[in-house]
UniProtKB/TrEMBL annotation:
Keywords: Decarboxylase, Lyase, Pyridoxal phosphate. This is Pyridoxal-dependent decarboxylase. Its cofactor is pyridoxal 5'-phosphate. Belongs to the group II decarboxylase family. The keyword Lyase applies. Pfam families: Pyridoxal_deC. The lineage of its organism: Bacteria, Bacillati, Actinomycetota, Actinomycetes, Kitasatosporales. Transmembrane segments: none annotated. It comes from Streptomyces phaeochromogenes. InterPro entries: Aromatic_deC, PyrdxlP-dep_de-COase, PyrdxlP-dep_Trfase, PyrdxlP-dep_Trfase_major, PyrdxlP-dep_Trfase_small, Pyridoxal-P_BS.
Length: 464
């Protein structure tokens, strides 16, 4: 064994304590750190010939790289839809690395049983019935890709071909319909060989809505003359957290032949709030569902789940035919359900957080974030030089400059806020207008944090 490696092994408890102390300082200092780091990253160095050991590596990381990391796990990082990591989830994530389980099969470990238990808890959390089975994947993009891979196989069944055997070309042109699809949907269609151009956007409801017009969706399906199709419904759009009428869309299946996929990456968590749970009515009727857990469940990257009513199709698409892996059984191993063979036990941080805080703890996070988004929306409404572009429906605030909202000026506003170190928000384009969006999904965020974000915005807009 290499001498440096052997020395690290003999001193492992002390090394882990050093890492623990370093991590604790980083986590406890999140609120005081600049939220975004916009400076130049260090130049790359050549690979060292001789190693410095774990302690030396930690010192090098602390000096060269840690200062440039953003405070994305902190309370005022409102870009994208980014949760933090609850204390329990962080504990589970550390143990995931310590146990280092390859959660592919049940032959040598109870890790996969833990994943099944966690999936059952999540089904209950989102109001899905036992007909839905699932698996952990890396994020919403892969969850959506898995779902559309199953939809592709389902289309093949309808047309009398096996896509998993013959390839996507055997399908011919595919029709994928959606009102306000997330950008991961065309990406998935590209990966799957269906093609980005096969996505047809259906008109949405008037009045600044992003929810699909169900009547227009029915017309689009009618125009297919009986050809099977894929419908991607949205439970929480990126800009305004608008929800399609899932029950009304599902009812169309009585007249038309289509696979219903629901992208509920973060909007699915509305099910936890009694005031907003109606938005997810009909989710259980979907053929497949995407939920991204490193958003509003506040578990570390990466972690998402995909659910489906069609596990037989999932096995057909993803089974790995190898003697050392075994054949799929009545309870197929995860190696037969996802694109990965080797896979991290992503379920453990989620299990820890759900076990630690339960439904009520996560409901409180969701409802507090919604209230804080409304608070920021009210501040923006009252602030000179700013205006809301859409009602604050859930946890995202979409806003712009009150006058001359050019791309340059709006992006300059976002940069000014980021450079202040107080907050970070991401740009968007909504209703023909350049805008910023602030997404609340972090368990740490408080009213005081929200007021600091508002103050940073007001200061930045006054200097434009």
């Amino acid at each position: 064994m290499d001498r440096v490696l052997a020395d690290d092994l003999s001193r492992l408890p002390e090394l882990l304590q050093s890492a623990r102390d370093f991590a604790a300082r980083a986590v406890s200092g999140l609120e005081a750190r600049p939220v975004a780091q916009l400076g130049k990253a260090p130049d790359a160095e050549p690979l060292p010939a001789g190693g410095a050991g774990a302690e030396g590596a930690l010192a090098r990381f602390a000096e060269r790289w840690a200062p440039g990391f953003s405070a994305s796990a902190g309370p005022r990082y409102l870009g994208f839809v980014t949760g933090g990591a609850t204390p329990a989830a962080l504990t589970g994530d550390w143990l995931t690395s310590a146990y280092d389980q390859n959660a592919t099969g049940s032959g040598d470990s109870s890790a996969t049983a833990l994943e099944h238990e966690t999936l059952g808890w999540l089904r209950e959390l989102f109001g899905l019935g036992d007909a839905h089975t699932g698996a952990f994947v890396t994020g919403a993009t892969v969850s959506n890709t898995v779902a559309l891979a199953l939809a592709r196989e389902w289309l093949g069944e309808r047309l009398g071909v096996s896509v998993s055997e013959a390839g996507a070309a055997a399908l011919g042109p595919v029709d994928v319909l959606s009102g306000s699809p997330h950008s991961s949907i065309p990406k998935a269609l590209s990966v799957l060989g269906i093609g980005r151009d096969r996505l047809r956007t259906v008109p949405v409801l008037p009045g600044g809505r992003e929810a699909v017009d169900v009547a227009r969706l029915a017309e689009a399906l009618d125009e297919l003359d009986g050809r099977p199709a894929v419908v991607v419904a949205n439970a929480g759009t990126v800009n305004t957290v608008d929800f399609d009428d899932l029950r009304a869309i599902a009812a169309l299946k009585e007249r038309y032949d289509f696979w219903l996929h629901v992208d509920a990456a973060f909007g699915g968590f509305a099910a936890l709030s009694p005031e907003h749970a109606h938005l997810t009515d009909g989710l259980d009727a979907a053929d497949s569902v995407c939920v991204d857990l490193h958003k509003w469940l506040n578990v570390p990257y990466d972690a998402a789940v995909q659910f489906t009513r069609h596990r037989d199709l999932q096995v057909r698409v993803f089974h790995n035919a190898s003697p050392y892996l075994g054949l799929p059984t009545g309870e197929p191993d995860f190696v037969h359900l996802t694109p990965e063979n080797s896979r991290r036990l992503r379920a453990l941080p989620a299990w820890f957080s759900l076990a630690a805080y339960g439904r009520e703890g996560h409901r409180e996070i969701v409802e507090r974030n919604i209230a804080l988004a409304r608070r920021l929306g009210d501040r923006i409404t009252d602030a000179p030089g700013l205006r809301l572009l859409a009602p604050v429906r859930l946890n995202v605030v979409c806003f712009t400059l009150d006058g001359d909202p050019t791309r340059e000026r709006v992006h300059a506003l976002g940069r000014a806020v980021a450079e202040s170190g107080e907050a970070f928000m991401t740009p968007t384009f909504y209703e023909g207008t350049h805008a910023l969006r602030a997404a609340f999904s972090n368990w740490r965020t408080t009213e005081a944090d929200t007021d600091r974000v508002a103050a940073a915005l007001e200061c930045a807009v006054s200097s434009l």
